[in-house]
Each structure stands twice: as C-alpha cells, then as structure tokens.
From TrEMBL:
Keywords, sorted A to Z: Signal
Protein name: Uncharacterized protein
Signal peptide (from-to): 1-26
Length: 121
C-alpha cells in the first residue's frame, strides 16, 4: 500500500536524484536549457562556430536533451545561438549563460519562427 511515508521516501529519492543530476551537469559545463536533440545540437554547433563555446554536450534525460557548455574566454562579437518557441524559454537560456559566465549579455528577438537568442561576450 502506498501511504504518506512511502510518498515521502519517493519524494526524497527523487530530490536526491535531481540534485546529483544537477551536479553532474555542472561538472560538464554551464547548463543552458533542455530541448530536443536536434535543437540542442544546433545550439551547440552555432556556439562553437561563433567562438562562444569551447565545447558542449547534449545529455539525454527525462525531459529531453540538456545542453551544457564550456565558454571560450575573450570573444566579444554577437552570435546567434538558436530560436525558441517562447520568450520565457529564450530568456531562461540566456540568463543561465550569463549566470554561468559563458557570455555577458543576451537578446531575444521575436521573429517568424519564435524568439531568436543572440549573445555577446
């Protein structure tokens, strides 16, 4: 029978798993967002080609593929990373990159396909 005590154990286990997953991602670089594999790879490739990311990983998880990046020091030009469905998704990825020191600013521009994320160093 599943009772409150069992629910508490399940919740504690899930929290511990989420914490350990976050730690593993932090060791791989700065977490930007979770999306499809194609979206993750496109963002990573654009960041590397633009000199923003030294490297990136797309790690499969429960909600999709998490993009973690390692920044490249000293770049300054604006670089397009990817287009997101919502402004909230675009800003979250930009905010995560700024907080992690990968870039110093970001801009989300509304276009035909969604919100385009461009970053500057």
């Amino acid at each position: 029978m599943f009772n409150r005590k069992s629910a508490a154990v399940v919740a504690a286990t899930a929290a511990a798993f989420a914490l350990s997953t976050g730690t593993a991602q932090a060791e791989d670089g700065v977490f930007l967002y979770t999306g499809t594999n194609a979206h993750c790879t496109f963002s990573g490739d654009n960041g590397v080609a633009g000199g923003v990311f030294a490297s990136y990983t797309c790690r499969s998880g429960f909600a999709g593929y998490s993009l973690s990046v390692t920044g490249t020091p000293g770049w300054t030009s604006g670089v397009y990373i990817n287009t997101f469905d919502t402004l909230a998704q675009c800003d979250a990825a930009g905010d995560n990159g700024e907080a992690g020191g990968v870039f110093t600013s970001h801009h989300c521009q509304l276009g035909f396909a969604g919100y385009s994320l461009s970053v500057s160093g």
